[in-house]
Specification:
single chain; 0% strand; 10 helices; 212 residues; mainly alpha
Length: 212
């Protein structure tokens, strides 16, 4: 994760750069967020994750505020916010999950194809993973968003993993298995090897349980 001083410097510097350099800086900052997310989600002790993702969520919001009109930082703000909700108490997680949903909806309104449909994937997972209250627990929306993401990138490790997991919630093991196999054997994405290593392990574990 970016150190506070470095993060502030890079965000402030963005205003003085050319449009191309400005975009490059945005993606460099997003890459930092991606690695920080993978560290928190897959390697940090679970007891530390609430505080960790709270800080990362603040950073992600600051970053997306520096780049209005861009879907990519909003997508990562949404992913990080949703991850934070996972480790919060039941009294606060629901509100944080709604924040994540609203940010992701803004992102896909700008560009649903951004980052290989990651905004759609994250929305789909929220709609079937968050317990039913308000607009969550909507399996029709979950299926719609995940299928849209798979049309954008049929080989996407996350889209295949979450769609396979979704199908298991619908008691459709036969259909779920090919998606889980695809996720478990997907080629690591350049620059996302740390996250994909964790996702591969998740997919392989879920596949093994499903095939038992």
């Amino acid at each position: 994760m970016l150190k506070p001083k470095l993060a502030a410097w890079t965000l402030a510097l963005g205003f003085s750069l050319s449009p191309l350099a400005h975009a490059d800086m945005m993606f460099e900052n997003i890459a930092q967020e991606q690695h920080a997310w993978a560290k928190g989600y897959y390697t940090l002790p679970e007891a530390e994750r609430d505080d960790y993702f709270a800080q990362l969520q603040t950073h992600a919001h600051d970053l997306s505020s520096q780049y209005p009109g861009h879907a990519e930082p909003l997508i990562w703000e949404g992913i990080i916010t949703a991850s934070h909700a996972k480790y919060q108490s039941v009294f606060t997680a629901g509100g944080t999950a709604k924040e994540a949903r609203d940010v992701l909806l803004k992102a896909i309104a700008i560009n649903p194809n951004a980052m290989d449909g990651s905004g759609l994937i994250s929305l789909g997972s929220l709609y079937f993973k968050v317990p039913r209250f308000g607009s969550f627990g909507d399996y029709d929306k979950a299926r719609e968003y995940l299928q849209r993401a798979l049309k954008i990138d049929p080989n996407n490790i996350d889209a295949n993993f979450f769609y396979g997991e979704f199908l298991l919630t619908q008691d459709d093991k036969t259909e779920a298995i090919p998606y889980l196999k695809k996720a478990a054997t997907a080629m690591p994405r350049p620059g996302r090897e740390d996250a994909d290593k964790g996702r591969h392990a998740e997919a392989a574990e879920l596949l093994a349980k499903t095939e038992q």
